[in-house]
Amino acid sequence: MNDLNPPLLAHLLYVQIGSPDPERVARFYAKLFDLPVTATLGGWVCRRPHQCLVFAEGPANSLISAGYAASDSKVLASLATRAKESLVETAAIDAVLLEPGAVAFRDPDGNRVVYGLPTESGPQRPSEVPPARLQHVVVGSSDVERMVTFYSRVVGLRVSDEVRDEQGGVRACFMRTDDEHHSFAVFRTSTHRLDHYCHELSDWNAIRDWADRLAAHDIPVKWGPGRHGPGNNLFLFFHDPDGNWVELSAELQTLPADRPAGTWRHEERTLNQWGRAYLRS
User: Fold this and answer.
1) Which one, of 110, 109, 107, lies nearest residue 86 by Cα?
2) 10-116 falls under which CATH superfamily?
3) What is the pLDDT of residue 1?
4) How far apart are CA 27 and CA 80, in angstroms?
């Protein structure tokens, strides 16, 4: 599938997540990451350059939308053309976080995805908190193959690695929008849902520093530190007040545009080279 389209050049700009108490969750992140927080977009926005989280009224652990910053207007035009050719309905939207004319669509599972040119985040006060760049989002789906086909053919993402079971079925797929191993992934689950989202750190030492910061805020590490197989990145996970899985990652693999998709076995060692893993299916 990787040779069907030229690579889509974009990076994850924001995730908008549902919560029964969005202000509470927003203030949790504002404190932990030292993010400015404002009430807007029908919810709460925590935003710095390269890190933007939006929380709105809705069921806990639900992905309302994911927004990607396109590299230029040509990316948006190409996406709109592919969608039209595939009979996928899109809508041009105006949003606080994106310039007018951003392109929005829903994938086969109903997830709302938006691509556009980002607006300026405004002047920022200095922060002593180690930087944590919003990097990828992962959804769960009962039909991974259909989702991969959609994101490859219509959106233009490239497959970096697949995880397959003994029968050859795809259990997980990691996809990229630039040279980083993945900015989007889909795991096989019994229901369609948000799986997790991730902040990329600078290096291994930053994993240590963030583990110390979590401990200082009485937030336990739920999984890790470890090393993923696909992506070869270091990681740890924690829960926010709604129980969302939040990943902190470092040293994610970068790939050349022509690198063919890899295949991994569906086993614990694939998700954690160092030990136990959380297998979704």
Assistant:
1) 107
2) 2,3-Dihydroxybiphenyl 1,2-Dioxygenase, domain 1 (3.10.180.10)
3) 42
4) 36
